[in-house]
Amino acid sequence: MCGIVACILKDGSAAPVLLECVRRLEYRGYDSVGIATSDPMIRIKKDSGKIDEVDAELDLADLPGSMGIAHVRWATHGLPTAENAHPHTDCSGEIAVVHNGIIENYLEVKEELESEGHIFRSETDTEVIPHLIEKYMDEGMDLEAATATALRKLRGAYAIAVVSSREPGRIVGARKESPLIVGVGEGEYFLASDVPAILNHTSRVIYLDDGEMVILDGDLRVTDMEGNTVEKEIHSIDWSADMAEKGGYDHFMLKEIHEEPSAVRDTLTEWDEVLGVVEEIGEVERICFVACGTSYHASLVGKYLFESLLGIPTDVILASEFRYSAGALNDRTLAIFISQSGETADTLNALRAANSRAKTLAIVNVLGSSATREAQHVLYTRAGPEIGVAATKTYVSQLTVIYMLVAAMGAPELMDRLGRVPEFMERALKDEDSIRELAATCSDVSDFFFIGRGFAYPTALEGALKLKEITYIHGEGYAAGELKHGPLALIDNGVPVVAISPPGPCHDKTLSNVEEVRARGARVIGVGSISDESLRKEADDFIGLDPEVDDVISPLIYIVPLQLLSYHVSVERGLDPDKPKNLAKCVTVE
After folding, report:
1. What pTM was estimated for this model as a whole?
2. Which alpha helices (H) appear in 287-429, and where do they start and end?
3. Average pLDDT, the chain
4. Which residues are known catalytic residues?
5. Residue 190 neighbours by CB under 8 Å, 6+ apart
6. In DSSP terms, which residues pair with 239 in a beta bridge?
């Protein structure tokens, strides 16, 4: 997973603009960075490390030329080294390419090119692309035709931007199964992996589809791989550049946690859209959620809602495992695909498999993304741009859409309760100081456990995931009733156990599980109603939430203090919660 940008400016230097844009994509990868400009000679600066580190060493903005390409990398093929950093070039240094994706047949292509005399300098799969383009340009093709011919020879996923000193003033971009947008400015153009990269320069974008190319050379032209012109709609993005800034917070993650009340309020405005989609879908006999990571946990809440409130059988399937379940779909099944970006590779492939078998609905945060164009029905979360790698406000926005969907399909009483969720969240956020103090006392542990029953179980899973993602502490979420079936063997003196126990039918049983772990020396962190004296008495530490929040609505509110706890533990450990190691925001490769 990587981030790419490119630009052709009407005047001025491209390198400072590229550096600013690629900084906004660092959540997509941060083990190396590079920029290439053309004036018309191609000049490159790149190295391994985070952008600030590399910029301090190389002064990335000090490159001539009004056009160029840039890249921030999350390694898949080859270690994060200067040699493996993008952009990559051909033998002569006349062609430079940045790439997001994976070329599956790169080894056989590389062997073929090496047998023809091409010399490779990196371990990456990407480097075969400029060498292939070089080969076809040497045969007489122009940059556009050579790029299309090269891509037809490759298998895998890609979003690329290409420049060549042989054709100064031109950038060629293309996509297949990896996101790529075109930014349309006043006499200048941009390419980017994601909208936040270019918000300071334009809010008008074109979303490329698989198998499409874009040629930028003072004008803009979109074609298919055979060179046929494709007419594209220009979308106006309602996100402001300020929405993608920290706004005075130390980290994007903390800002985005504090934006959760407004994210829920904004998503609730989609109620009429939800009603319309439910009417279009008609009757269903089965629900099948398909998602990854945090979106999978949101889907688990959906399962509890659909089955307990509406009696509709519901399955939740990891997108990467969906191929084994696709055969069970039929036209009476509603398959719901949840993805913040709408570009998650596993989820998109599952959606494509389901489209011919079932009714499909995508729940997505990014307007115009691949999932929104491929699903039969679409509902949008209104979280705005989320820059922190660990999902926070997009999670509660996904949950909000799921609750509205259930309300529209037969449980309208949920809507009044949803309307109070932002208020409950705001009260939870006021307790941040005590959560910060709690984090300071448990930042040096090696294990953390989260337990809950019923609607609290997905919250336990998501709380554990947040902790793992940004603190690197081993965290596990369990259904509290499963403790005796194995996990209890891991409980020892001082091990933190977060017991999530909102008011409801599961409360007393969860309290019994709390007593079990206390008897084995665990440090219990209770999360429950502020008026829950039973849990408060059993817990070593207690996080109290509004007593009007019951178990059904609790996933939306009880996750807030768990997100804050993980955030502050990460900061206590001297880590950057926005940029967890080995992870990227949008997983665009399988």
Report:
1. 0.72
2. 293-305, 345-354, 370-374, 393-408, 414-419, 421-429
3. 92
4. 2, 585
5. 5, 6, 7, 21, 182, 183, 197, 198, 201, 202
6. none
Give CA–CA dist 580/275, Å, rounded. Answer: 38
Q: How far apart are CA 258 and CA 81, in angstroms?
A: 37
How many H helices and E strands in the chain?
19, 24
Contacts for 585 with CB less than 8 Å, ≥ 6 apart: 1, 27, 28, 341, 386, 387, 389
Q: Which tokens belong to 44?
A: 């490159």
196 contact partners, CB below 8 Å, separation of at least 6: 24, 25, 239, 244, 385, 387
Residue 590 has pLDDT above 60, yes or no: no
Instruction: Give the count of alpha carbons within 13 A of 207, CB side only.
Output: 21
Among candidates 48, 68, 66, which has minimal Cα distance to 58?
A: 48
Token pair recorded at residue 365? 């945060």
For 267-299, b where at least 16 C-beta lie within 10 A, e where not — what string?
A: bbebeebbeebbeebeebebbbbbbbbbbbbbb
Burial (CB < 10 A; 0-12, 13-18, 19+), residue 10, is exposed
CB 389 within 8 A of CB 514: no
Residue keyed to tokens 């995508």? 362
Helix (H) or strand (E) holding 184: strand 181-184
What are the residues facing 44 on neighbouring strands?
Answer: 36
Length of the chain, in residues: 590
Rounded-to-5 percentages of helix, strand, coil across the chain: 40, 25, 35
Strands 220-224 and 212-216: antiparallel
Both structure tokens of 140: 């007489």
Cα 521 to Cα 103: distance, rounded to the nearest angstrom = 51
pLDDT, tens only, 357-416: 999 999 998 777 888 889 999 999 988 878 888 999 999 999 999 999 999 999 999 999
Residue type, 344: T
Structure tokens that stand for 302 in this block: 């959906």
Q: Could you tell me the CA-to-CA distances from 541 to 456, 498, 515, 536 in Å, in that order?
A: 18, 9, 14, 8
Return the bridge partners of 236, or none: 204
User: What Å distances lie between residue 10 and 3, 164, 172, 188, 219, CA to CA?
Assistant: 24, 18, 17, 6, 11
Average pLDDT over residues 326-330: 92
Domains of the chain with bracketed CATH: 3-243 (3.60.20.10), 249-419 (3.40.50.10490), 428-576 (3.40.50.10490)
Helix locations, 259-328, DSSP H = 260-268, 271-281, 293-305
The residue among 181, 215, 570 whose CA lies nearest residue 372 is 181
- The count of other CB atoms within 10 Å of the CB of residue 397 is 30
